[in-house]
TrEMBL record:
Gene source species: Sulfobacillus benefaciens
DNA-binding interval(s): 30-49
InterPro entries per the UniProt record, alphabetical: Homeodomain-like_sf, HTH-type_TetR-like_transc_reg, HTH_TetR, KstR2_TetR_C, Tet_transcr_reg_TetR-rel_C_sf
GO molecular function: DNA-binding transcription factor activity; transcription cis-regulatory region binding
Keyword Cell membrane: no
Name of the molecule in the record: TetR/AcrR family transcriptional regulator
Entry superkingdom: Bacteria
Pfam families (UniProt xref): TetR_C_24, TetR_N
């Protein structure tokens, strides 16, 4: 496993943990595995993180924080609902590809999180979903999107279509993350558009 030796130590430990958790699974990865791969001592790990659980929590925070920041940037552009939703979908797909190891770990291991941490991350994910729901609702109010589906249900369906990319995306495949995002956005937008 290639690790950037110039990376700050907390980031380096997260980088190693996320790759090991994605490859071996959370239970099969020991603290000893992490520190050996990172080339540090257990003391160095415990200087930054209290436990393996905290590493798992930080992995989840890493990509949801980036997704929320990007969604806020998109929402601030002042585009109409169609353009905004299109950019949100493409951004989501690009995030899943950029953070594919983190996403893999999240979906496989989220049940390992302590309830207090899980509740915090669930709130962050709900906040992120809120950008999509708000945009769909605005599109419905303006007559751009069909009214026969609830914005929450449409958001969950949209996430279902995008999030499972972590199981099939091939970085060596013929399509870039952006191209896949554009194609998924076209399909979703067609489904949301008012008929006729």
């Amino acid at each position: 496993m290639a690790i950037n030796d110039n990376m700050p130590m907390p980031d380096r430990l997260i980088e190693v943990a996320v790759k090991l958790f994605a490859e071996k699974g959370y239970d099969a990865t020991s603290v000893a595995d992490i520190v050996e791969t990172a080339g540090v001592t257990k003391g160095a790990l415990y200087h930054y993180y209290t436990s393996k659980d905290e590493l798992l929590s930080q992995i989840h925070r890493r990509f949801i924080t980036a997704e929320i920041k990007d969604a806020q940037r998109i929402m601030a552009q002042g585009w109409g609902p169609r353009e905004t939703l299109r950019h949100l979908i493409i951004s989501l797909v690009e995030s899943i590809v950029s953070y594919r190891f983190e996403v893999t770990v999240f979906f496989r291991e989220m049940h390992r999180l302590p309830s207090s941490v899980f509740d915090e991350i669930k709130q962050a994910r709900d906040d992120y979903a809120g950008f999509f729901e708000k945009t769909i609702r605005q599109g419905q109010e303006l007559g751009e999107f069909r009214h026969d589906s609830h914005p929450r249900m449409m958001t969950l369906a949209l996430f279902g279509a995008c999030n499972w990319m972590y199981t099939w995306y091939n970085p060596d495949g013929p399509f870039s993350a952006r191209k896949i995002g554009e194609q998924l956005a076209d399909i979703i937008m067609d489904g949301l558009s008012c008929p006729g």
